[in-house]
């Protein structure tokens, strides 16, 4: 995606980025049509550092496709009832039916990341999770569900810059939580946890794909391009329908709604 200078990519201009993104989103629409036509099922997992840009990637994937085909799942902390269920149960209920791709904004890997580092679970449960997850994911694949796993990495300086931006930008305040601040403080603890997680669950059948997300624009383009490459899809011919003639009804209002309060248009 462009030339390098001094070991770093040249900055990607907005026009070039938006053109590349649009082209990829057109391909996502083609993938969508193929998934609907073939009944393909896929689960895409997004994990990584806090402020690594997982939400931004998912937003660009989904903003021009149908939420009925590309479903995003971002689960809150488990309820007291969910804590008594099998660990994977709250995730499995969101798995795709035919013709769906489910995007997990964080997933069952919470157990090996935040739950481990923050002490929400015992280390023996973490070890059990790491031992069993490869078998769980093999079962997912053997049922015919394509499983794709992304880990977004951001370095310490860039994470700090993004956290500071969240503190000063009112439109980003909601992105900053006490857990984010703890993840900043416990960078090394998370490094250890993620290293063990990736080592234990990176297999030929369900590999981890690492996305360098210090450059948000490039990360989004690289991730979407790679995601498309994981499907052997074909363009489904589209036949544009003809608009029918409108029927005329004698007493139908001609100037829009006749009841309710019209909001003025100051812009």
TrEMBL record:
GO terms for biological process: phosphorus metabolic process. It is an enzyme of class 2 (transferase). Residues 13-235 form the Polyphosphate kinase-2-related domain. Keywords: Kinase, Transferase. GO terms for molecular function: polyphosphate kinase activity. It comes from the Bacteria. Its EC number is 2.7.4.-. Pfam families: PPK2. Residues 248-257 have a biased composition (Basic and acidic residues). Residues 248-267 are annotated as: Disordered. Uses inorganic polyphosphate (polyP) as a donor to convert GDP to GTP or ADP to ATP. Belongs to the polyphosphate kinase 2 (PPK2) family. Class I subfamily. Homotetramer. This is ADP/GDP-polyphosphate phosphotransferase. It comes from Nisaea acidiphila. The lineage of its organism: Bacteria, Pseudomonadati, Pseudomonadota, Alphaproteobacteria, Rhodospirillales.
């Amino acid at each position: 995606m462009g030339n390098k200078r001094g070991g770093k990519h040249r900055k990607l201009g907005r026009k070039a980025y938006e053109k590349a993104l649009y082209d990829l989103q057109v391909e996502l629409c083609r993938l969508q049509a193929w998934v609907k036509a073939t009944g393909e099922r896929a689960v895409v997992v997004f994990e990584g550092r806090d402020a690594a840009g997982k939400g931004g990637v998912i937003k660009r994937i989904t903003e021009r496709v149908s939420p009925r085909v590309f479903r995003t799942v971002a689960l809150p902390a488990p309820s007291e009832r969910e804590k008594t269920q099998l660990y994977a149960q709250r995730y499995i209920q969101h798995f795709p039916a035919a013709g769906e791709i489910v995007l997990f904004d964080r997933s069952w890997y919470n157990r090996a990341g935040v739950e481990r580092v923050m002490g929400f679970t015992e280390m023996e449960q973490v070890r059990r999770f790491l031992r069993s997850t490869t078998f769980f994911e093999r079962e997912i694949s053997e049922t015919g569900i394509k499983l794709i796993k992304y880990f977004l990495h951001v370095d310490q300086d860039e994470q700090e810059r993004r956290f500071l931006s969240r503190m000063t930008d009112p439109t980003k305040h909601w992105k900053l939580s006490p857990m984010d601040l703890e993840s900043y403080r416990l960078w090394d603890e998370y490094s250890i946890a993620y290293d063990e997680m990736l080592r234990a669950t990176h297999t030929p059948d369900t590999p981890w794909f690492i996305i360098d997300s210090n450059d948000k624009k490039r990360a989004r383009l690289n991730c979407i391009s790679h995601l498309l490459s994981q499907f052997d899809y074909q363009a489904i011919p589209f036949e544009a329908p003809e608009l029918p003639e409108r029927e005329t009804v004698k007493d139908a209002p001609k100037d829009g709604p006749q009841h309710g309060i019209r909001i003025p248009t100051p812009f």
